[in-house]
């Protein structure tokens, strides 16, 4: 089992763990502070799901980030490290806009009543006043963590450079093709978060009306996304042209669905619309990288990555072809300078 051995790899993992623990605790406090001001009837209104949606998204985001951080450090992938910095920047933007979104939702709920005249918020409570300090603190925590991620990533850049140089020692054209494969696989991992996050938000808002078919379709789509991304990685590594073409078509279908949703999401749900837009951009980028990988099939990338894995396996007790390292085409090895 991999364990960070250097100061900067430990620091990168520590920043991710501390941010996840502190930010998740603050988000949980916000959820409790707001939920205790809600009347039971609030679940019938879409805006009543705003806080639970943010809570679910942040918890999922931080947990998934821990997996990606461990994966990136284990495989010494600078591409994924850079992706994690951008990923955390997206979380920061969400944390910054979260207070305005929640405040707007609470004001909307306070001014509305049920069909029989009952309030949606408990009279005499101050949900916004109770949750505002935690929301501000959450944004500050994520901002500090983002700055630390970028700072430590800069240190890791030089630390990983030697490992990558040893692993990818082919000609320039081969390095470019291997880099495209690495970027595609890394992009698929981030796609999983954004697609699942979008579907989860869509499902939460659709739950205001359990009779809508979209609620059940979102549940089924979650399983489909997991299957498609797994097949995308397998097809790319095995250079399966038919499978990769099917994956590209599936991503075009996802892009079309996202375009449709962008035109139908209420303007009041600003952050949901923003998340859908980011997911659409990620999906289009994935399509582009898939096409580039498809063009490189049959040009030696598969043979090169397999030879690198066989060479690396001599230093391992057991070759793990399903490990994240294999997905990047190489397994980090200790440099002679470390001895």
Automatic annotation (TrEMBL):
Domain of life assignment: Eukaryota
Keyword annotations: Membrane, Transmembrane, Transmembrane helix
Keyword check for Nucleotide-binding: no
GO cellular component: Golgi apparatus
InterPro entries linked to this entry: UPF0658_Golgi
Claim: Mitochondrion is one of the keywords in the record: no
Residues spanning the membrane: 52-70, 77-97, 134-157, 178-200, 215-237, 244-263, 275-297
Record's protein name: TRP C-terminal domain-containing protein
Species: Neurospora tetraspora
Phylogenetic classification of the source organism: Eukaryota, Fungi, Dikarya, Ascomycota, Pezizomycotina
């Amino acid at each position: 089992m991999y364990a960070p051995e250097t100061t900067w790899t430990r620091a990168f993992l520590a920043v991710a763990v501390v941010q996840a623990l502190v930010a998740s605790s603050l988000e949980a406090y916000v959820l409790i502070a707001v939920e205790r001001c809600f009347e039971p009837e609030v679940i019938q209104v879409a805006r009543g799901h705003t806080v639970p949606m943010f809570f679910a998204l942040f918890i999922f985001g931080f947990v998934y980030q821990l997996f990606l951080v461990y994966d990136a450090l284990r495989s010494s992938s600078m591409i994924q490290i850079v992706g994690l910095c951008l990923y955390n920047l997206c979380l920061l933007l969400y944390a910054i806009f979260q207070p305005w979104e929640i405040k707007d939702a609470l004001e909307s709920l306070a001014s509305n009543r049920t069909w029989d005249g009952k309030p949606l918020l408990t009279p005499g409570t101050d949900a916004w006043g109770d949750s505002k300090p935690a929301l501000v603190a959450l944004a500050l925590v994520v901002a500090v963590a983002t700055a630390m991620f970028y700072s430590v990533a800069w240190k890791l850049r030089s630390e990983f450079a030697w490992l990558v140089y040893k692993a990818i020692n082919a000609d320039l054209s081969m390095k470019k093709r291997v880099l495209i494969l690495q970027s595609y696989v890394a992009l698929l991992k981030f796609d999983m978060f954004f697609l699942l996050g979008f579907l989860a938000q869509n499902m939460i808002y659709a739950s205001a009306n359990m009779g809508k078919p979209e609620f059940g379709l979102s549940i089924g789509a979650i399983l489909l996304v997991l299957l498609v991304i797994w097949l995308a990685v397998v097809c790319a590594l095995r250079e399966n042209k038919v499978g990769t073409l099917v994956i590209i078509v599936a991503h075009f279908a996802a892009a079309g669905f996202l375009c449709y949703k962008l035109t139908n999401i209420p303007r009041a749900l600003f952050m949901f619309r923003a998340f859908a837009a980011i997911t659409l951009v990620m999906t289009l980028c994935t399509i582009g990288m898939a096409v580039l990988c498809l063009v490189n099939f049959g040009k030696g990338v598969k043979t090169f990555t397999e030879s690198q894995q066989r060479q690396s396996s001599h230093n391992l007790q057991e070759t793990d072809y399903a490990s994240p390292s294999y997905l990047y085409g190489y397994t980090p090895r200790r440099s002679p300078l470390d001895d």
